[in-house]
Design brief:
Blueprint: H1 8-29, H2 36-43, H3 57-70, H4 72-83, H5 88-105, H6 107-119, H7 124-147, H8 156-175, H9 182-201
């Protein structure tokens, strides 16, 4: 006797349960304890059951990062609302500081979203939409700054890509083991923040 097919609602509920479990394990044990087998054991299901709902472990990580990082968008919307009434230079600085603040509050999730997913061999499906979301958010702030005469007139998307790269590079290097200490990471973040704000507000020298 064949089993009845699961409804879309049942499939979505199980996917959510898998992601909830993965998120709990990530918080409890860090990245070393997060595996498809650990998720299955915590859920008390067969290991291969997970792959009925996700293609592989990388797909679970992608979906987890996608879901959690989507929550960032609501916080970015608050920043953009501030830009309508507040000093755009101050708002832009806060927008850039969002990334190191998020990393300090959610280091394991940051590692999944910005290191494993972006650098991993199967990263293409995840990274582009989310990175673009962040770039477009910063580009909208930059456009406001240009219109108010606070930022140098540049292509907002190019400028946003530049500053997001600057602020995240020390964090990604830290999580990739390329920076020796948290103190050095924090100093580099501050240097990159000042470099990013200088890039936005100062006219570059003529070549």
């Amino acid at each position: 006797m064949t089993r009845p097919k699961k409804t879309p609602e049942q499939i979505e509920a199980m996917r959510a349960r898998i992601l909830d479990t993965a998120y709990t394990l990530l918080l409890e044990t860090g990245l070393k304890g997060l595996s498809s087998r650990a998720i299955a054991e915590r859920m008390d299901v067969a290991h291969m059951t997970l792959f009925t709902y996700f293609a592989n472990q990388q797909a679970i990580l992608q979906a987890l990062a996608d879901r959690e990082m989507a929550k960032v968008q609501s916080q970015q919307e608050i920043i953009e609302k501030r830009a309508a009434a507040e000093d755009i230079v101050t708002v832009m600085r806060d927008a850039l500081l969002f990334f190191p603040r998020f990393e300090k509050k959610n280091p394991n999730l940051y590692h999944v979203a910005w290191v494993i997913i972006i650098e991993g061999p199967e990263s293409t499906g995840y990274s582009l939409p989310r990175i673009q979301m962040n770039i477009q958010h910063l580009a909208r702030l930059i456009q406001i700054g240009i219109e108010r005469g606070k930022f140098v007139a540049r292509d907002p998307l190019l400028a946003a890509s530049t500053v997001i790269s600057l602020i995240n590079t020390p964090l990604i290097f830290w999580h990739s083991g390329r920076i020796a200490s948290a103190e050095l990471r924090d100093r580099l973040v501050q240097e990159m923040l000042e470099a990013a704000m200088g890039y936005l507000t100062k006219t570059p020298p003529r070549s």
